[in-house]
Amino acid sequence: MTTSPLSVFSINNLKKIDQLIWDFFQQGVKNKKSAFHLPTIATCGMKSFNLRTVVLRQVIREDNIVVFHTDIRSKKIAELKSNNKLLLHIYDKKNKIQIQAEGKAKIFYKVKLNKLTWGSLSDNTKSAYLIKETPGKKIANEKDLKYLSHDDGYNNFSIVKVKISKIIFLHLNHNGNKKALLKYERKNNKYFWLVP
Ligand SMILES: Cc1cc2nc3c(=O)[nH]c(=O)nc-3n(C[C@H](O)[C@H](O)[C@H](O)COP(=O)(O)O)c2cc1C
Predict the structure, then answer these.
(1) Per-residue pLDDT tens for 70-82?
(2) What is the pTM of this model?
(3) What does the DSSP assignment read for 58-69?
């Protein structure tokens, strides 16, 4: 009989599970192999929901905030401006956990934070902001693109901070799956086990 190795999440203390989840978020910023490095985010449009992958850029753990960068002209920005609710999803296959998080997004554009962050980005990362045409626009030919200078790319650069208010955590285990709701409230966090 084969037994799978015990996951770090095979514990029953929800406070510790919460701490582990935020450890994983923090590690996900730098560790490109972590599932937390590339979360899927969902925003709500007028007619439907929209999902996409983003790179996790920063975690402000004490405030339950996760940060990503995006083009100010992208669809997600327009959607977040009309409804700042954002859902985030991660499936960590190695640790057999799923994170379903919900939060409110705040967009930062052309403020000191953006100037400082833009200055710290590599030319390769900056190149994502240099296409003259609006992202998602139909074009006749995929080579038919005009580019901006690195300095002009700054005009397209935005930072989105998401304050997470709750997480639904699921741990898959052959001895029985475990599910929990973690709620982040101003004074104290609340934890509940859920039927998996
Ligand atoms: C691995 C990967 C990482 C990505 N990282 C980002 C990112 O950090 N920010 C971003 O805006 N788009 C990123 N994208 C592109 C988005 O998934 C999406 O296609 C793009 O932002 C346009 O989305 P929207 O028009 O729905 O806003 C990434 C895509 C992949 C496949």
Answers:
(1) 999 999 999 999 9
(2) 0.95
(3) EEEGGGTEEEEE
Tell me how far the alpha carbon of residue 77 lies from the centroid of ligand 1, in angstroms: 12
Sign of CA dihedral 7, 8, 11, 13: negative
Tokens of 33: 């192999």
CA distance 21 to 97: 10
Closest residue CA from atom 25 of ligand 1: 75
Tell me the CATH number of domain 14-132+146-194, given options 3.40.50.300, 2.60.120.260, 2.30.110.10, 3.40.630.30: 2.30.110.10
Q: For residue 150, how far is its CA from the centre of ligand 1 (angstroms)?
A: 19
| Residue with CA nearest ligand 1 atom 22 | 74
Q: How far is CA 115 from the centre of its chain?
A: 21
User: What percent of the chain clears pLDDT 70, i.e. is strictly above it?
Assistant: 97
Best residue among 33, 54, 89 to mutate for probing ligand 1, ranked by most atoms within 8 Å of CB: 54
Domain ranges in the chain are 14-132+146-194
Q: How far from 46 is each of 18, 43, 78, 143, 191, CA to CA, in Å?
A: 34, 10, 10, 31, 33
